[in-house]
Amino acid sequence: MNEKLTEELNLQMNREFFSSYLYYAMNTYFKEITLDGFAKYMKKQAKEELKHAQGIHDYLIDRNAKINYSRIEAPDINWLNPLDVFEYAYKHEKFITGHLHQLHKMAEEKNDLACQIFLNGYIVEQVEEEAKFYKMIERIKTNAECNCNLNNLNIELM
Ligand code: MG
Question: What spacing in Å lies between the alpha carbon of 19 and ligand 1's midpoint?
Answer without folding.
Answer: 6
